[in-house]
Amino acid sequence: MHIYFCGSIRGGRDDVVLYQKIVKKCQQYGTVLTEHVSHGNLTEKGEDATVKGDKAIHDRDMEWLEMSDVIVAEVTQPSLGVGYELGRALDMGKRILCLFRPSSGRVLSAMIRGAENDSSFHVKNYSEEEVESILESFFGSLKN
């Protein structure tokens, strides 16, 4: 299974330790195509090593999105890129799980929360202690 993980990069890296926990758990279920999003050395400036620039990042990530079987997105930290990826994934008919921590004091965008449906787009409020069990439940439901 190919898993596309979405998390904020240029929108802020405050949750990178949590991203690492999510990616590690997702790796039990398949290959995380975007594991670099969880790397601690990746700053808000993004991938400085990519000499071909933003277009190459966009095109590579869209290729990975097409390849993916499921999308797992941590959406607590607002990010234009994550929102864009989710919209594209929804149009592609991908199975999507969005994770949001209400304890952050933020309010999730209505465009994310309102996209939830019973079949392919799921939004789960969670605490850090619950994230692994939510992922287990999500990936377990894919086998049905």
Can you walk through the features of this model?
This protein is α/β, with parallel strands linked by helices. The chain has five helices and five strands, in the order βαβαβαβαβα. Helix 3 links the parallel strand 3 and strand 4. The radius of gyration is 14 Å and the shape is globular. The relative contact order is 0.19. The mean pLDDT is 93.
Number of helices in the DSSP assignment: 5
| Residue share in β-strands | 15-25%
General form: globular
Residues in helices, as a percent range: 25-40%
Return the average pLDDT rounded to an integer.
93
The main sheet orders its strands as 2-1-3-4-5
Query: SSE order, as H and E?
Result: EHEHEHEHEH
Parts with pLDDT < 50 across at least 5 consecutive residues: none
Radius of gyration: 14 Å
Write the layout of secondary structure elements.
Layout: E1 2-6, H1 16-26, E2 31-32, H2 54-67, E3 70-74, H3 80-91, E4 95-100, H4 110-113, E5 121-125, H5 131-141
Parallel strand pairs: 1-2, 1-3, 3-4, 4-5
Keywords, separated by commas or semicolons:
144 residues; alpha/beta; 5 strands; 36% helix; globular
Summarize the structure.
This protein has 144 residues and is an alpha/beta fold. It is built from five helices and five strands; from the N terminus they run βαβαβαβαβα.
